[in-house]
């Protein structure tokens, strides 16, 4: 026999359950009604502050009530109509109501649209994402959830953020490392981006420029932008590039002896493997990996030269490619950096990680109409990637890099002065 353990005289909960059932069935409507009621109270307080109590005879009032009208405010990524009071000043002009002006701001609607675009919700599905079909808050014409309205907001907000991003002051950043990489979006459209690492190991997206190809002029425009925004060209820094000759040329022209260039070892190995048959891949990859891990730059260079010599008879072009830029391939080894720091700075993985986020963000774009559209999307992707950045793994060893860069810069400056003196 089952015993009844319900205490005698317990209060009935049917009414409460019924109320909660209504809330669950129409939670959106409940939130909307509560929000409108709170907004109404705030607007009435603003009107009272400007006009005094209703039916009062306040001689110090600045305005008087002028009926009511309907306006639109943002809700669920779109707009809804709300009744609001009107106020006119003693001069007959319309007086704004502060609480209404704040509620009617559309910037957050643009941020909502931008956030959904960044997580790959297409503009055609924007309405479904913010207004569920089974919900009881309708989306009538003019509610701002159509694909064109969402697209306009997405264009407007990234354009403003791009302008702020490209004009941000860089003089306060203690940048030790700058990585530069390109993203090909079409046959005649390339975007080149820069990302920096400061002395604490924090990563910062820096700049973005467009061009038809990843040539010296495009990279030079990127570097000129960095310098104009406060990046001191006389401070020693490590520049990491993907191996394009245009990058090294533009970096040396802009920063001179203050620039130490490291060519990406991963790009270099990938380019070599693509030109060799598969039977040579394992042995070549093993030699390159062994060279990258050595602490002695001279021994590493000897290993790579021996590899090129073995391949020279059958694959002379590949052998020449292995030796091309050899000095810049082993820069982090010549600087005598700790092994963990070398692994972090011997490649453009930081930039590649950012590029991966950009590709995910832009995967719904089927056609790039112009460079302006590409800049907006890629800048939005860089800002999105910045949210997930973590400090450099070997950030505690960055002081070693700073000292090594400064020592190298001092040696090069001394040698240059001695050479000029001898020439004179």
From TrEMBL:
Record's keyword terms, sorted: DNA recombination, DNA-binding, Transposable element, Transposition
Function: Required for the transposition of the insertion element.
PANTHER family reported in the protein's UniProt record: TRANSPOSASE FOR INSERTION SEQUENCE ELEMENT IS1081
InterPro entries cross-referenced by the UniProt entry: Transposase_mutator
Protein family according to the UniProt entry: Belongs to the transposase mutator family.
Species for this entry: Bradyrhizobium yuanmingense
Record-linked Pfam families: Transposase_mut
Protein name as annotated: Mutator family transposase
């Amino acid at each position: 026999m089952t015993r009844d353990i319900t205490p005698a005289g317990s209060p009935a909960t049917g009414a409460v359950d019924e109320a909660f059932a209504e809330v669950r069935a129409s939670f959106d409507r409940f939130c909307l009604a509560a929000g409108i009621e709170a907004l109404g109270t705030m607007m009435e307080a603003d009107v009272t502050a400007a006009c005094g109590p209703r039916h009062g005879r306040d001689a110090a009032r600045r305005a008087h009530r002028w009926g009511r009208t309907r306006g639109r405010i943002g809700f669920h990524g779109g707009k809804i109509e709300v009744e609001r009071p009107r106020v006119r000043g003693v001069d007959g002009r319309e007086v704004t109501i502060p609480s209404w002006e704040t509620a009617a701001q559309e910037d957050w609607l643009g941020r909502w649209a931008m956030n959904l675009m960044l997580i790959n919700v297409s503009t055609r599905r924007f309405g479904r994402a913010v207004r569920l079909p089974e919900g009881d808050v309708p989306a009538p014409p003019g509610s701002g959830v159509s694909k064109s309205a969402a697209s306009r907001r997405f264009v407007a907000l990234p354009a403003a953020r791009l302008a702020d991003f490209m004009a941000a002051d860089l003089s306060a950043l203690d940048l030790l490392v700058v990585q530069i990489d390109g993203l090909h979006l079409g046959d005649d459209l390339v975007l080149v981006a820069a990302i920096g690492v400061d002395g604490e190991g924090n990563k910062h997206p820096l700049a973005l420029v467009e061009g038809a190809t990843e040539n010296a002029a495009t990279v030079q425009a990127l570097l000129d932008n960095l310098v104009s925004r406060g990046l001191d060209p006389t401070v020693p820094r490590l520049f990491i590039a993907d191996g394009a000759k245009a990058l090294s040329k533009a970096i040396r022209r802009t920063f001179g002896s203050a620039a130490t260039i490291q060519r990406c070892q991963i790009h270099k190995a990938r380019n070599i493997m693509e030109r060799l048959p598969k039977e040579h891949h394992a042995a070549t990859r093993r030699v390159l990996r062994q060279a990258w891990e050595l602490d002695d730059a001279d021994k590493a260079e000897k290993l790579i030269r021996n590899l090129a010599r073995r391949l020279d008879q059958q694959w002379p072009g590949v052998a020449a490619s292995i030796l091309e830029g050899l000095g810049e391939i082993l820069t982090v080894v010549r600087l005598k950096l700790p092994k963990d720091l070398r692994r972090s700075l011997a490649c453009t993985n930081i930039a590649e990680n950012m590029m991966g986020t950009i590709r995910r963000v832009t995967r719904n774009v089927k056609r790039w109409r112009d460079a302006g559209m590409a800049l907006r999307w890629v800048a939005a992707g860089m800002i999105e990637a910045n949210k997930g950045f973590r400090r450099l793994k070997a950030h505690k060893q960055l002081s070693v890099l700073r000292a090594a860069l400064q020592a190298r810069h001092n040696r090069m400056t001394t040698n240059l002065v001695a050479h000029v003196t001898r020439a004179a």
